[in-house]
Design goal:
4-stranded antiparallel beta sheet; 10 strands
């Protein structure tokens, strides 16, 4: 079973991103498939084929007492075959709570963790999307209450299998 651990943005953040995308130019290559807003998430770690019960038990231990970062969706970028919206941590990368969550969930690799929300995918041989400037305006700040273990099925069908509560961090005093 293909699994990943993620944070799901709240409805207000999804609505703000939807509005921002409505006014941002983003010509996509032929054959691009936009991601349904109901599937937008911030992947902490892709586990691949794994046993869901064992992974849930591992996450319960690894994420016990983990601090929930204060986040917002802002800007856009591309990977080969992917258009994404960026995810910022309230106190910037130096705050480290988001990268810590990803590492605790199992993220490792040669590239640094780049939190993002996938907006569209296409065959990487068809070129890149073009996004102007920062792409989209920053959305509202939000704090996830949980990390979720998700089963991924073909066609971007996701099923939440397990939830791990996160500990609230420092109370937010940032307007917005």
């Amino acid at each position: 079973m293909r699994l990943f651990t993620a944070l799901w943005p709240p409805p207000g953040a999804v609505a703000a991103l939807t509005r921002a995308l409505g006014g941002a130019p983003s010509p996509l290559p032929d054959g691009a498939r936009r991601a349904d807003p109901s599937t937008w998430h911030v992947t902490l770690c892709f586990h691949g084929d794994d046993d869901p019960d064992a992974r849930a038990a591992t996450l319960d231990i690894a994420l016990a007492g983990a601090v929930a970062p204060r986040l917002r969706i802002a800007g856009t970028g591309t990977f080969p075959g992917v258009l994404w919206a960026g995810v910022e941590e309230r106190d910037g990368p130096a705050a480290g709570a988001l990268a810590d969550l990803a590492a605790r969930a199992g993220a490792t690799g040669p590239r640094p963790y780049l939190p993002h929300v996938t907006l569209a995918r296409w065959d990487r041989r068809r070129g890149d999307a073009t996004v102007g400037g920062d792409g989209i305006a920053a959305g509202p700040w939000w704090t996830p209450g949980e990390a979720v273990l998700v089963r991924s099925e073909p066609g971007a069908r996701y099923t939440v299998l397990h939830r791990v509560p996160l500990r609230p961090g420092t109370p937010d005093r940032t307007p917005g």
